[in-house]
Design goal:
Elements lengths: L6 H4 L2 H4 L6 E3 L31 H11 L12 E4 L1 H13 L5 E6 L3 H10 L2 E6 L10 H7 L4 E7 L11 H14 L2 E5 L20 E6 L12 E4 L3 H14 L5 H12 L1 H23 L5 E2 L8 E2 L2 E2 L7 H10 L2 E5 L10 E4 L5 H17 L2
Parallel strand pairs: 1-12, 3-4, 3-5, 5-6, 6-7
Antiparallel strand pairs: 2-8, 7-8, 9-11, 10-13, 12-13
Helix pairs in contact: 3-9, 4-5, 4-8, 10-12, 11-12
């Protein structure tokens, strides 16, 4: 397979250097946390050996326990495969279920891995365009009419990155029914689910044809743990995903899995601290948006990102806008990170502290004014 580096990685804050950024509005996660904040203590007696290839048993039990409310069936620890982050989980799913020539339906715009890995495999990627004029809502009827005999996978994300929109329960149920009727797979990237005050059921609890992916990176601000998971009730798929993991990493990091286990033991306590902060910062964003007549935007319903668009006729010098805010030390995720028009940009409001967020938003306003 011929891999290529993607703009979202090449131009990421960690590649630019965090010390070069004054106001970081690129991030799609809660503020990066420390082990001390989460009460994690790693003992010097921890044995750093090959672990259970599926993941630490207690960790998988905790993930299964937190995944069950609202579903039709109950997931157990054997339905959980721990992975090095959600990105690896998405990679394992694509490389396990898709082959050269298979047809894939995927929401667009989207996180790059959901698009690029199937392309590298040689799958025929058909995008399901999410249009701002339609509130970035998925057209489930269009999904149904786009299914072919060669369709193997429908890939959606909820809450969605980068728009912050959420599937309705009726649309999720319709997608599950579609997957079952056509005997194809439904992949739901649920990485932002724990940020949703009223979350949908975990898709994998609704059908053996549904696969759920998530991680600790975004909702908890712990991307450095590299701990994600994939959930499926289907034994054959579990085996294929495990084989993919074993061929890439054998097993997870003993350090990461122990730390993640300690975090999830106190999951409710951590979310009770994190979610009000996200709500406060979302309020700051919404207050700012009221006066920005140079932007089109769909209000984010969950998560910590939205995907505004420079309004044609108000800001037409797109390059000049990005130069102005970058020169001021403010960075956003430009549209091409998501295979989209550069008039769009991902605005992350959950990572920066309130002062940095306010400064960054002011910088965006000034940048737009400088090229109008």
């Amino acid at each position: 397979m011929r891999y290529r580096r993607l703009p979202i990685e090449i131009e990421s804050p960690e590649e630019r250097g965090y010390d070069t950024i004054r106001c970081n509005l690129t991030e799609s996660s809660f503020t990066d946390g420390t082990l001390a904040e989460f009460g994690v203590e790693l003992s010097g007696e921890l044995t750093v050996a090959y672990g259970d290839h599926r993941g630490l048993p207690e960790l998988r039990e905790l993930i299964a326990e937190h995944s069950n409310p609202g579903g039709r069936t109950t997931l157990g620890a054997d339905d959980v495969l721990c992975t090095p982050g959600a990105a690896a989980a998405l990679f394992f799913v694509a490389t396990s279920l898709l082959e050269d020539g298979d047809h894939l339906l995927v929401e667009h715009t989207n996180y790059a891995t959901n698009l690029e890995t199937p392309r590298v495999i040689g799958a025929e990627v058909e995008t399901l365009e999410l249009r701002m004029e339609e509130g970035f809502a998925l057209d489930v009827d269009r999904v149904a009419t786009s299914v072919r005999p060669s369709t193997r996978l429908i890939s959606v994300t909820s809450p969605h990155n980068p728009t912050g929109t959420v599937l309705s329960r009726s649309d999720l149920d319709a997608l599950v029914e579609l997957a079952e009727r056509h005997e194809l797979w439904l992949l739901v990237d649920e990485t932002y689910r724990d940020m949703d005050p009223d979350p949908l059921p975990v898709a994998a609890t609704l059908s053996s044809r549904a696969i759920s992916v998530s991680s600790l990176s975004k909702s908890y601000g712990l991307p450095g743990l590299r701990l994600g998971w994939v959930l499926t009730q289907d034994p054959e798929t579990q085996e294929r995903l495990l084989a993919a993991k074993e061929q890439v990493v054998i097993c997870g990091s003993a350090l990461d899995e122990e730390a993640a286990c300690q975090v999830l033991r106190r999951r409710d306590e951590h979310l009770a601290r994190i979610l009000p902060v996200i709500a406060e910062r979302r309020g700051v964003l919404l207050d700012w948006l009221v006066d920005q007549d140079w932007l089109d935007v769909v209000e984010p319903r969950a998560g910590v990102v939205c995907f505004p668009r420079l309004r044609p006729g108000a800001v037409d010098d797109v390059d000049g806008f990005y130069r102005a805010i970058n020169d001021d030390g403010t960075f956003v995720g430009e549209g091409h990170w998501f295979d989209a028009d550069r008039r769009h940009f991902r605005l992350g409001f959950g990572w920066p502290g309130t002062d940095e967020l306010l400064a960054g938003l002011s910088s965006l306003t000034a940048g737009a004014a400088s090229v109008r």
